[in-house]
Amino acid sequence: MKFGGENCCVIWFNEANLGDSSGRETITRVTGGMKVKADRDESSPYAAMLAAQDVAARCKELGINALHIKIRATGGNGTKTPGPGAQSALRALARAGMKIGRIEDVTPTPSDSTRRKGGRRGRRL
């Protein structure tokens, strides 16, 4: 099991980044929009799966067969839960034969945040 200098795959929105664990060096970066033609499909779980398969193929070329995974949602004032693409990307990496070490959620959570959009009376339907 070669973790390749502690390589780590970051899944954020529909983007899969493969780099070293410090985050300084990026080996490959694939987005959902690079894999599908239609604009409406860019943010789909299918596009995330295709992006993760590309990352897994690049790992195989480099001789890396194990990864640590970091999953990130928007955080801050946005949503704190990762979207549906994160799960399908994770499954695609596992199905491609990559061994998965740690799965870590690195979503930024504010201790005290800036004001949310919507105004004083909130969103009115």
UniProtKB/TrEMBL annotation:
<dbReference type="InterPro" id="IPR018102">
    <property type="entry name" value="Ribosomal_uS11_CS"/>
</dbReference>
<keyword id="KW-0687">Ribonucleoprotein</keyword>
<dbReference type="GO" id="GO:0005840">
    <property type="term" value="C:ribosome"/>
</dbReference>
<dbReference type="GO" id="GO:1990904">
    <property type="term" value="C:ribonucleoprotein complex"/>
</dbReference>
<comment type="similarity">
    <text>Belongs to the universal ribosomal protein uS11 family.</text>
</comment>
<dbReference type="GO" id="GO:0003735">
    <property type="term" value="F:structural constituent of ribosome"/>
</dbReference>
<keyword id="KW-0689">Ribosomal protein</keyword>
<feature type="region of interest" description="Disordered">
    <location>
        <begin position="101"/>
        <end position="125"/>
    </location>
</feature>
<protein>
    <submittedName>
        <fullName>40S ribosomal protein S14</fullName>
    </submittedName>
</protein>
<dbReference type="Pfam" id="PF00411">
    <property type="entry name" value="Ribosomal_S11"/>
</dbReference>
<feature type="compositionally biased region" description="Basic residues">
    <location>
        <begin position="116"/>
        <end position="125"/>
    </location>
</feature>
<dbReference type="InterPro" id="IPR036967">
    <property type="entry name" value="Ribosomal_uS11_sf"/>
</dbReference>
<dbReference type="InterPro" id="IPR001971">
    <property type="entry name" value="Ribosomal_uS11"/>
</dbReference>
<dbReference type="GO" id="GO:0006412">
    <property type="term" value="P:translation"/>
</dbReference>
